[in-house]
Amino acid sequence: MNPSEKATRTTNKALFVKKMTREILSGKWRPGDKLPSERELAAEMGIGKTVVHSGFEQLAAMGLVTIRPKSGIFVADYMKSGNIELLNAIVQLSGNELGREVVKAILDLRLAIEGMALRALCLCRTEEDIARLRAMTDDIRKCSRDLGEVELAERFFIWHREICVLSGKSVLTLFMNTMHDVSIAFWINYLRLFGLPFALDLLDEFTDRIEFRDEEGAYNLLASGIADYLSRLEK
């Protein structure tokens, strides 16, 4: 096989894996569903059956599918069988490409990460930390009219990441960064659903609770915000 042939096969395999990952994580195919045969998928995408076979082997290694000889290929219970490679695939997709169960799982992870940081920051916060958070909120208010949806979502992501930074728990900041792309899609949806004034008032409320060292109140504010977001998505 010459290098160009090998590159084409690699590209086709990557496209196939991404397509099937997106379809499974969006909820088009659910755990337990039997997927179309390799032959059918190869014909649908106009690629070789060997490429599809190799792609399914990668999806199986990620924990997304289960290959049962002579029976077919089935969507796995990937929340139990998935690994770090699957997590990487999830965070590389847009939040709008994910099904509700995956969205909930990601937001549960965010609650665990940022919730821990909020509790820590409430106990260790300084006057400079409070001033920093209020200045960031004021800056969003002042320039919001000049920002597009993506830029505004970025500002809210940075504000909440700052909670992890100020908490002194640097590993939590790294986890927040891994969820950046998918979080931007969530923030765009959140601002559309709840509106900018409400979202800004919530930043003020977070800051107040941190200032008063109200760790339970700050955590519960985050938890209720996530629950409200999920309930709006169901409507």
TrEMBL record:
It holds the Pfam family FCD. The keyword Ribosomal protein does not apply. It comes from the Bacteria. SUPFAM superfamilies: GntR ligand-binding domain-like (SSF48008), Winged helix' DNA-binding domain (SSF46785). PROSITE patterns: HTH_GNTR (PS50949). Keywords: DNA-binding, Transcription, Transcription regulation. Residues 10-78 form the HTH gntR-type domain. GO terms for molecular function: DNA binding; DNA-binding transcription factor activity. InterPro entries: GntR_C, TF_FadR/GntR_C, Tscrpt_reg_HTH_GntR, WH-like_DNA-bd_sf, WH_DNA-bd_sf. PANTHER family: GNTR FAMILY REGULATORY PROTEIN, TRANSCRIPTIONAL REGULATOR, GNTR FAMILY. This is DNA-binding transcriptional regulator, FadR family.
